[in-house]
Design goal:
The protein has 67 residues and is mainly α. It has a single domain, classed as Orthogonal Bundle (Arc Repressor Mutant, subunit A). The chain is 63% helix and 7% strand. It has a two-stranded antiparallel ribbon with strand order 1-2. Helix 1 crosses helix 3.
């Protein structure tokens, strides 16, 4: 789904940026340009970043718990 209409950025692109190392809204803004014009997408972008980071942390915990 489109998150930033001004720049045409999707939730998939935001998640990919986080998987590539972005860990904050600022990092995603620097990488993709999201929330750099009108700013209305900032809150949703922040939520997607947090959700993706949480998912990554949970998958790492599951991975190490099994070993």
């Amino acid at each position: 789904m489109y998150v930033c209409l001004c720049k045409g950025i999707t939730d998939t692109q935001i998640r990919a940026a986080v998987e590539d190392g972005a860990s904050s809204l600022r990092d995603v803004r620097n990488t993709l340009g999201v929330a750099s014009q009108c700013g209305k997408c900032g809150i949703l972008t922040r939520e997607i970043v947090r959700e993706t980071l949480t998912d990554q942390a949970e998958s790492e915990q599951l991975f190490y718990a099994v070993s």
